[in-house]
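Sample entry (573 residues):
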Amino acid sequence: MRALLVKALMLLGLGCVFMVSWSCDDELFDPEVSPICDLQPSADIEFGSVALGAYRDTMLTFRNLNEVDDAQNYFRMGAIPDGDCGVFTIPTGGLYAGVRLNAAGELTVPVRFQPDAAQSYECRLQMWYHKYQDYLIGTQNLDIARPCAAQLTWTGSGIVSPMFSVEPSEIAGGTVLVGELGGKGIRITNRMDREIGGTEPALPVDGFKRRSDATCPSAFRVEPSTAVIPMGESREFTVHFDPTEPGDWFCEFDLVLGDAADSYTHFFTPPPGPHLTVTATSVAPACGLEPGAELDYGQVQVGSSSVLTLTIRNETDAPIAGNQFTYVLDTPTADCRVFTIDPADTAGVIGPGESKDIPVRFAPDAGGAFECTRSLASLKEPADPADPNLTLACPTSVVWRGEGVGGSVPVWSSCAPGGSNDWYGVSGVSGSLIYVAGDGGSVIASVGDCQWPASGTVFADVDLKDIWAYSDGADTAAWAVGNIPPPPGTYGETGAILRMDGGIWQKADEGWIVTYGAVWGSALDDVYFVGTGVSTDFPNAKHWDGSAFDTLSIDLGMSELTGVSGNAANDIW
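Predicted structure, serialized as tokens:
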């Protein structure tokens, strides 16, 4: 009632009315003792571009600059929102409900812009300011002498891509040896296009936080751990992986970002802020070769030799279980006869950080190029039948090359026919067809590369002593001589002559008066068989003229003849 009465009297021009402590002197309306509103930083705020799911914070500060602590200097203020204000949030019960600022009072209002769509937003706040004393007595439209802005305008845009990018955001770290350091580079770019709150929006990278995951070991780290990235610029970082045990690993980092001026704490909340995904495999052991899978000897004089060393190494030295492997050098090719290694070096176990030196000697036996290939297996130790090979194995073969120069020297190489028989005779038709004869009627023929299959069907009761083979280009024949052991309880062997024609063996002659030790011929119709006669008046040799056998006596019949050769039919030894 008092307020209405005062107002009515003033409207009627009846002058001032003095009631209690109220007065009408000039001090009531003096700006120096009236509320004065101040707003920082500005009535208009542009939040810029913010990624969907992210947010940006800033602060508004209202102050009552009148410091005289008098109820007449208090004022009340509030805001009426209009436009896209749903994505601009302020604390509930604040501006929208109305607040009071005492003399020298201050109100800080946090404002957060968090877009929910890829579009532009504008929020308009219609502000009102009332003297607090008039508000209490119901006076209306009596604004303070110096109000703040009549309208606050907040604008911003929601975007799909973040304002900061990590490139690449996914890293396949590949395979890293246990105990060694692997590294991959990444780039973080500040994509903001304007200043916020009057400060340059540099980006302090406060750290890369590993998400809680059992497969994300502490061996993963990012360096440098912090950095400042100015607006529109990029910085390089390195993702390190330093494994201490073998395995397959997955790690995801959240990037913690902050404002250089600390006007807002985080640009992003994980997720969907920038993050980094890293996968890697760590292994032990790993096989390595020095100087490599090939050895090149260059030119070496025939009759001399050169030695190079092949080193097989375990690349990992971590003293962990299973950090060892077995190597096997096998299946040499034909030219490997002139590239020799110690048989003890063809296989072995190599432990952590260890190596095996294998001297390889090249000794050419003729002029020309030589190349040897040997398979190389690097196997898990202990053996794993389901997955035998190392993850990081050595090359599966090694190649050794060299060239022999100068003259040639005769070199004997082993090409044993194998088996348990005793072999006594050998005869060759060509370099690729060689016959060997021995006990039990055994005849074998080489078909090249030291392979000795049986030659036809031979009589098992004849212990063969010699063989002779011949080919005139059209026909090939072979003769073999030997002896049939006596039946149990008797004495005296029986000589036998065998002939092979068309791959079939037959007994061409058999008799007790002579045993045979050798055979030779100059042609298919000129073949000689020598041995030992049963007495001095019995022959000890025979001759084949192409159709029949003739008996011969060489020296005394009792002489034991074990070899025969010649140049022609009339020149026999």
